[in-house]
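Mods, move this if it's the wrong board.
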Amino acid sequence: MTTRRSPVEGLTRARLDREEGYRLLGLLQDESYQRSLLPGLEEIVPGFPDWIVTALFGGTYLREGLSLRDRQLVNLAALTAVGGVDPQLAGHVKTSLRVGMTRQEILEVFVHLAPYIGVPRALAGLRVAVAALAEAGTETDTGTETDTGTEPGTGTEPGTGADREDGR
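Not the wrong board. Structure tokens:
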């Protein structure tokens, strides 16, 4: 008689760290965004905000392989491609600044996306990004750079791995 193995045997256990999730959320998302989203969502669907923070920021964001900066590039592209998620896209534009992306790099994401997702969708994302950058206090004309306190391309921007002991 053969013993059947459970389909879940041998799977690598996912790391879910609730406390680290909330710490990372505080680092990446501004407090006003958190206040506008989490309590209201908790009233509608109790426990869902905690699941989001734990699973995303305490799970997915903690995986090896992508820096926080790289994750923001992916987030900007995905949210723009999906469309109709302006508040989330605006929040991630601001988060991109926090992880060391420059205004120019953020805007270039939308130019690069145009042939892949279509000009109208890329322009819609660009409009959200320009508004979010203005709200964050950055200049959006090509002559002014946002001072992030880092040198682009030096490997010392927050989120490139150089600022974290674990290299993520």
